[in-house]
Amino acid sequence: MSLTQNYIHQFGRFQRNARLYLVSNALSGVTLGILQVLYNLYLIALGYHTDFIGLILFTGTIGEGWLSFRLVSVLIVSKAKRS
């Protein structure tokens, strides 16, 4: 049995809610990828150079990382205060 067939077989064994969650996650990822490509093409159409577009994407990634770190740290601190 190939790896893909094994994955499809195992996927079918999950409960319905788990399958829906995984499909939803996959579709969200594809949608986000399409939006990022369209955004890059839009910036190129506006006349921005690739180094500037890379800087914008980099700052967005750093911002998202910082925000997720802040959210996790706030959750940890609030849980520690309740204990």
Summarize the entry for a quick read:
The chain is mainly alpha-helical and 83 residues long. It folds into two domains: 1-47; 48-83.
Please explain how this structure is put together.
This is Major facilitator superfamily (MFS) profile domain-containing protein. The chain crosses the membrane at residues 20-46, 52-77. Keywords: Membrane, Transmembrane, Transmembrane helix. This protein is an all-alpha fold. The protein has two domains: 1-47; 48-83. The protein has helices at 3-12, 16-45, 50-82. The protein starts with a helix and ends with a helix. The mean pLDDT is 89.
Secondary-structure map:
Layout: H1 3-12, H2 16-45, H3 50-82
* Strand tally: 0
First-to-last CA distance: 50 Å
Shape: flat
Q: Number of helix segments?
A: 3
Report the sheet-strand fraction.
under 5%
What order do the SSEs take from the amino end to the carboxyl end, as H and E? Answer: HHH
Major sheet size, sense and barrel closure: none
